[in-house]
Amino acid sequence: xxxxxxxxxxxxxxxxxxxxxxxxxxxxxxxxxxxxxxxxxxxxxxxxxxxxxxxxxxxxxxxxxxxxxxxxxxxxxxxxxxxxxxxxxxxxxxxxxxxxxxxxxxxxxxxxxxxxxxxxxxxxxxxxxxxxxxxxxxxxxxxxxxxxxxxxxxxxxxxxxxxxxxxxxxxxxxxxxxxxxxxxxxxxxxxxxxxxxxxxxxxxxxxxxxxxxxxxxxxxxxxxxxxxxxxxxxxxxxxxxxxxxxxxxxxxxxxxxxxxxxxxxxxxxxxxxxxxxxxxxxxxxxxxxxxxxxxxxxxxxxxxxxxxxxxxxxxxxxxxxxxxxxxxxxxxxxxxxxx
Length: 339
Ligand code: FO1
Hints:
Order of helices and strands: HEHEEEHHHHEEEHEHEHHEEEHHEEHH
Distance between the termini: 13 Å
Number of strands: 14
Helix content: 25-40%
CATH class of the domain at 7-45 and 146-338: Alpha Beta
CATH superfamily of the domain at 7-45 and 146-338: CofD-like domains
Mean pLDDT: 93
Bound molecules: ligand FO1
Low-confidence stretches: 330-339
Largest sheet: 7 strands, parallel
CATH topology of the domain at 7-45 and 146-338: Rossmann fold
């Protein structure tokens, strides 16, 4: 299938960002501030979602919503800025569960989402509503409206994702990951339509954890297939810099799973799906050994200017990759692309 994206699509087409929470949200914000906001579509991981204290919690979705709305707590990386914790303190006094911190402001989104879902509406419906309420003009959607839940296999058992990530602080060694429900889950119709859109300008896989955060997407067969067949260039921004993860447990998990912490491993993870990889300047020596087009730049995003600059560079790179259609088709013929 041709990767040719017309000139018109390049200047006006939509960009799909696929992301998890904190790391991915930073680049999503850069794209939001760089592109015309209605040109950005963000599909978010829901494998981290869970039911807690009777509420439906979608941590990555909320991180992206809060980040694009400018109300996220930038230091913590999750939850809302100017947060207070009276509910948690009172819950503790009552002997309730306090291992997962729900701030007073943050509570509102969980209560409303739970109400929507109980009324029979979908998570997509709720996110569209929440984005409108928060004044966000990009389209944000969950990867699926079905239940997909991440489980972490550790020595002697298995933990639901948030028990591993928050309660156990990622301390247990990861032996395997399981995305319950993914085999049968349908990606949202809007996500499939976006991937099938011939005018789609680019798909950007944000620098989220490729195993924990992007793994649930790739575990849905229909999504994998749609990504493989999308005519838009698929660009991966590596979350690895000089053998370390920018944030979070990516490097630790890779080591525990026996995967070298290199950009080659990231390329291998997305083999058959990615058309280009963005790596950090500090890893420029790895570029020559990678078997797909590579952009070497500064991938660390410390401030807003970094987020916007990286977003612009990623889009320019995607346009260049789309223009190198011949190289892409020959790679495909060499058997690079898998469904
Ligand atoms: N992360 C923590 O490390 N500790 C928490 O208590 C915590 C609470 C929390 C509440 C709402 C929310 O949307 C996110 C929250 N997170 C918390 C972050 C979140 O669980 C993880 O960062 C993601 O699931 C991993 O992407």
